[in-house]
Specification:
516 residues; alpha+beta; Rossmann fold; 18 helices; globular
């Protein structure tokens, strides 16, 4: 199945099974704004808990913060967002659609990668076990030709970004015949910069109102509270401050479902270090964060690092952790060495001294910062994309039937177990409800008695429930139940008294943390 079709099915699945809804749908919706349904909010909260606990509980020198969305407008002047928080956008005159010029060029380079990968894939099938991929990539004329074209584009692209040369970005798009996906034409406007911040007014009268911004990132709330946290917590460098919160960007080109939204949520940790030690910590946090992603078991080959072609104004090193979505490798987390830019800027604009006295060095300095930043919504989408499966399984009378299953890691699955009485009589519902009442203090449980047991299994598969517990007439006699495992569909008979221990072991974040 084409990856584009997989993505369409995934979006439809999110709506049908209560994961994600279009915001204000009964009023025809609001573009690039989404609501999380009953299962989506559980999955999202589990992702956030896994991140928060791995940061704050597992690290003695990382603490939490919850800063306000509204901040003094000078904060955004100091941070550079007022003057430099822009996207290079280009319009197609025929379709009237607007695109990010840098994304169009990145997609163009990805097409050359796809062509090279296709040549490699064909050769691997032809040569079998004797295939040497590295040698093939170095010697095959078609691969080398595509590589040369990609490198030419990449070189021009990087220079244009560094020089802020908008005309050159358009020239690349024109030179390589990039067409609008809607109109199929190359009738492009010039590239222009658009600031992405939402603004509003705070105050009781129009004359006395203060222009404020909805924060475009959560990091600045950490930086302006650096001294508050450091002094009240008696924190010693190196230490980090973690935060989960909403951010807002007026994305002109919002697309790909919840991948790029106007209202989104971030999980960020700013790690403060001594000057000169930032690149060492940058490499360390790269390793830590990649292990965190891979620990969820969605496939190590699905993740990769992608170093930035153009560094932000505040950074001296930056990389992204990308996940292979149905529409290609895309960023889910950014790791940046932000130098001392943020604290120095706030020190200058506020007139307040923002330094740390290092008792070991016997000197004061403005700390440097290493940032790790995840988009919660992108993480959510990567988990669903990696978990979504359509399988052919053996049904009744040996006939093949299909099932849609979300093979979510049990630790973040929205519902941990469903308890299902085989029939709605003979005391089976009462026993099933008793099991739910015992286990609901430990796990998110569901009780379901409607339809055949097969249909109930399919419903639970579709929302990613890792365990189904079936109560039958034997359960009344010997206090045992059947536990069905989602991924394998295998069933085993266990004592009711063993259920808590069996499920706890599989869904415990503690067991996963031990592997980090």
């Amino acid at each position: 199945m084409a990856q584009e079709d997989v993505f369409k099915k995934l979006v439809a699945h999110c709506k049908e099974y209560g994961f994600v809804f279009q915001s204000s749908e009964i009023y025809d919706g609001l573009a690039a704004v989404y609501d999380y349904g009953q299962y989506g909010v559980e999955l999202k909260n589990n992702i956030k808990k896994y991140w928060w606990d791995s940061m704050v509980l597992l690290n003695d020198n990382v603490v939490g913060l919850d800063s306000a969305i509204f901040m003094h407008p000078t904060v955004w002047k100091a941070s550079g967002h007022v003057d430099a928080f822009n996207d290079p956008l280009i319009d197609n005159k025929d379709s009237k659609k607007r695109y990010r010029a840098d994304v169009l060029i990145e997609d163009l380079m990805a097409k050359f990668d796809a062509k090279m990968d296709k040549e490699v894939e064909k050769a691997a099938k032809r040569f079998g076990d004797s295939f040497d991929e590295a040698m093939f990539r170095e010697t095959n004329p078609r691969v080398q030709e595509n590589l040369k074209k990609k490198e030419e584009i990449h070189s021009r692209f990087v220079k244009a970004l560094h020089d802020n040369d908008l005309a050159e970005l358009k020239k690349i798009i024109e030179d390589y015949d990039v067409v609008c996906p809607i109109s199929g034409t190359k009738n492009w406007t010039d590239v222009r910069q658009f600031n992405l911040m939402f603004s509003t007014e705070m105050g009781s009268t129009a004359d006395g109102a203060l222009k404020v911004f909805l924060r475009p990132e959560t990091a600045q709330g950490i930086f302006v509270n650096f001294l508050n946290v450091q002094k009240t917590g008696r924190m010693k460098i190196p230490f980090g401050i973690a935060q989960i919160g909403k951010a807002f960007r007026n994305e002109i080109v919002a697309r790909q479902f919840i991948f790029r939204m106007r209202e989104f949520e971030q999980m960020e940790m700013q790690f403060f270090v001594a000057p000169g030690e930032e690149l060492k910590w940058f490499e360390k946090w790269k390793d830590i964060r990649m292990k965190w992603h891979q620990s969820l078991g969605m496939g190590e080959h699905k993740y990769r690092f992608h170093d930035h072609d153009k560094l932000a104004h505040y950074a001296n090193a930056a990389t992204d952790i990308e996940y292979e979505m149905p529409f290609g490798f895309k960023e889910v987390e950014g790791i940046h060495s932000r130098t001392d830019f943020d604290l120095s800027q706030h020190q200058e604009y506020s007139g307040r001294k923002i330094t740390y006295y290092d008792p070991e060095k016997g000197e004061s300095y403005v700390p440097y910062v290493v940032e790790t930043s995840i988009g919660v919504d992108r993480m959510f989408l990567s988990m669903l994309a990696g978990a979504y499966c359509e399988e052919e399984v053996e049904g009744k009378d040996g006939k093949k039937e299909s099932r849609v299953v979300l093979k979510l890691p049990p630790v973040i699955a929205p519902v941990k177990l469903a308890v299902l009485p085989l029939v709605k009589k003979d005391g089976l519902p009462e026993m099933a409800k008793g099991i739910v009442n015992d286990l609901k203090f430990h796990f998110n449980c569901q009780y379901d008695e409607k339809d055949s047991i097969g249909k109930r299994y399919r419903r639970q598969d579709a929302i990613g429930t890792p365990f189904c517990i079936t109560i039958d007439h034997q359960s009344l006699e010997d206090k045992t139940v059947t536990i069905r495992h989602r991924d394998t569909m295998k069933q085993e008979r266990v004592s009711i008294s063993e259920l808590k221990g069996i499920i706890s072991e599989k869904v415990s974040m503690t067991e996963l943390f031990k592997k980090l």
